[in-house]
Amino acid sequence: MGAAGSRDTAPDAGAQNPLTVATEHLRGSSLLLAGKVFAFGLGFASQVLMVRYLSKGEFGAFAFALSAVTLLQAFAGLEMANVVARFLPIYRERREHGKLFGAMLLAFCVVAAGGVLSSGAVVAAIALLGLRPIADDQAIQLLALLALLIPFQAIDNLFTSLFAAFGSAKAIVLRQSVLIPSLRFLLVLGMIAAGADVTFLALGYLAVALLGVVLSAVLFLRLLRRNGLADEWRSSRISWPAGELFGFALPLLGTTLVWALMDASAGLFLGYFHGTAAVAEFRAVLPLAQINLLVSATFGTLYMPIAARLHARSDRAGLNDLYWQAALWMAVLSFPAYLIGCGFAGPVTTLIYGAEYAASAPLLAMLSFAYFVHTASGFNGLTVKVIGKLRYIVAIDLTTAAVSLVLNLLLISRWGALGAAIGMTATMLLHNLLKHFGAWKHAGISPLPPGQVSLFVLLLVLPPVLALHALIPGGIWVAVPLGVGAVVLTIWMGWDGLRLLATFPELRRLPLIGALVRRRAPPG
Fold first, then answer.
1. Beta carbons within 10 angstroms of residue 318's beta carbon
2. What domain range includes position 312?
3. Which of 8, 43, 67, 85 could form a disulfide with 161 if both were Cys (CB 3.0 to 4.6 A apart)?
4. Total tally of structural domains belonging to the chain
């Protein structure tokens, strides 16, 4: 796929029209999405095997430890991944190579130091201070072991942003979507074949993470040489834009706090109030709901660097077009996952995890709805960050973080895993609404998708309606054909807005697909 977003080329100095910029983003993101789907498939298969092989207590202990590590790793990076995604494209656009290299070096130092300090603090708190956030010895042991993942994962996230800033989608796919998920899948198979326990799994995760960082470093050095930046490095005088970087990074820790609280605190509260079985009940279906994030997480990798270029050129029309083109593609591509997770939560949960997890079905439906709304409404938060309205971001992040803590504390203590799902859904919807208001007010983004409002409404309401299949004659046998028809209908309705032929002109050359797209394409 010869995409501009997937080649290691420097950004154009001149202005580009909105369609070209949006197309660059969509083509590069499509390559990333293909890799992400492959990675998710392997990751999901790995989790299903773990759930089936490990006892509910063992899986709950492992999930609890990963929840704590995820929470701490989010802070260890001090937002450097988002910082380089915003500032490096701007420095390249202005040919400020001294700042470019200084920003990269500073980001590495901050992330490495933050990761090591966070990891050391966890181990010291458990070993020396007797910290016991959960009454389960195995979970405590796994937490002390998996805490060593924190610096590796923080550095890995930074490399992803660096590759995105230099337009190297292929490097991201190779290391993040192919190598690491494949090794983790083989690790789970090895654990099962050897009859090993969950400690073997934790040690394997550490080995895979270390290998991933080494591979990323090798690929990044090659990328610098291909872009001619190795020579620039030797001839440029390094400057350290610490004020710019930290001035942007520190306020954004609020965003990290919100997502870390939503993703990790539910598992921590469940473990504290109800034990590892409740953690397993919630965490088992969370990856199914998060399938709705596959597209947005992929498209977001290249969105921020391209949006930063448009902001540097004061191209608001291009930014609005980029925003809603990305949102439309994300909504349509995520819809099948939302349809399955919300419309068929009961059958899907019991089919994959067994009758023991049947009570998790309402959690899956609720969380799928929240994640789809987050995806379909577009990159509102990233856009507000790109234009530098950090005070607004800080205000809504702190507000949402407080709401998240209060809701989790009240709801989880009383209703367990169901309370966790209700609290996470409510927090995500509130946070998204506030970000969307900010994107409209501060960045001039249209509050509603131009010409596509009816499509977005249809996408949102169809799965909850189909969730009532148990109440209609024929049940799931009627609902499944209706679901397939819903997918076809949404693609048909959104065809013109997707600009499929403009984005992927190669489709014209394919015998069958080419005939179909030419027939559906509007005249001219």
1. 23
2. 18-493
3. 85
4. 1
